[in-house]
Amino acid sequence: MSAVAAQPPAAQPPAALSEKPVLEITGLSVAYRSSGADVKAVERVDLSLHAGEVVGLAGESGSGKSTLAYGACRLLRPPAVITAGSVVYRGRRLGGREVDVLSRTPDELRELRWREIAIVFQSAMNALNPVLRVRDQLLDVVDAHLDLGKDEAHERVASLLDLVAIPRDRLRSYPHELSGGMRQRVMIAMALAVDPEVVIMDEPTTALDVVVQREILSQVVELKERLGFAILFITHDLSLLLELADRVAVMYAGQLVEVASAHDVHYGPAHPYTRGLLNSFPSLRGARRELAGIPGSPPDLRNLPPGCPFLPRCGFATGSCAAIDMSLSPVPGATDPWHVSACPFVTPSTPDVARPRLAGAGAAAGGEPGRASGPVAGGAPS
Fold first, then answer.
1. Where are the domains of the chain?
2. CATH number of 23-245
3. Helix, strand, or coil (residue 126)
């Protein structure tokens, strides 16, 4: 599941982008307070999720993906604090009402979470309670949100295991008695227990082999088509999102740097960071090509430099990159009209540079975008 086919998929327009999104994140900023300086984990992020859509959120570890998702659901604990922004939920059960998630009381959040917005947490072994049987953990979710009799609740829990292709006799098992794939399926069943409209999946296939990944992702797609929920899928594996997602949002240093259809991200990436991620994994078919990692390391979020945070690692960098405001703008020449990027200098038609450069190369050489003058000494591939 970590490689993609060479044949281009048909370009499909994002689902119902003319309608209001079911979940709309606007200008969200999250910081981790410390005695030294705030760590700006998420900075001015705008992201929307429409009914029935799969949006992939990709980026390196530490880029702020999980912090964004947990902040949108008000699941962050101190020292994390939301410093700006809004999160609006519009579900069909609300009858046209809009819910401002960030202003809800704890009791109101309890009604909203899992019933409307559910989460498949990273690392199922840690997310499941090790001293409770699978049946009891699923019953907790059902009893908290649905008014069902005892027999009806037990039947619903059993049917949830049917939904994710686990034998019903596993209801009596403890999490440690299940395989990694089964535990992940239990987490998916738990997330779908009360028919939510939005399911956030935080790296649900991490540490699973590629065969089990394929089975789980195929099941996720099948369930999404059958039940009609929307998915925010978080992963560091961009190649996986190219097969699964309708739209892909690429995140770096707490900011979105590119958002486009999966087709455009694959065949017409605009941001240099997206190109670097695409060049980091092989294709299953087609001509052989040299894989190139992204040099250097992500920046210190306590002291971000002005302009583009990717500048020290970018092969297209010029002195002008230190002055851009990182706002997302439409990409000239993109086939997807909703394709936006934070880089105003690189477009899908810009040829790749010979090799990535490290800090200062563009500014020192005064070069043009797309023309590298060679790497700067002192950096090592990450």
1. 23-245
2. 3.40.50.300
3. helix
Q: Is the peptide bond before 175 cis (omega within 30 degrees of 0)?
A: no
Write out the DSSP string of 190-257: HHTTT--SEEEEESTTTTS-HHHHHHHHHHHHHHHHHH--EEEEEES-HHHHHHH-SEEEEEETTEEE
Q: What is the pLDDT along the chain (382 residues), one digit of tens a residue?
A: 444 444 444 444 444 555 899 999 999 999 999 888 899 999 999 999 999 999 999 999 999 999 999 999 999 999 999 999 999 999 988 888 999 999 999 999 999 999 999 999 887 778 899 999 999 999 999 999 999 999 999 999 999 999 999 999 999 999 999 998 899 999 999 999 999 999 999 998 877 788 888 888 898 999 999 999 999 999 988 988 998 999 999 999 999 999 999 999 999 999 999 999 988 877 767 777 777 778 888 999 998 888 999 999 998 998 899 999 999 999 998 888 999 999 999 999 998 875 544 444 433 333 443 433 333 333 333 3
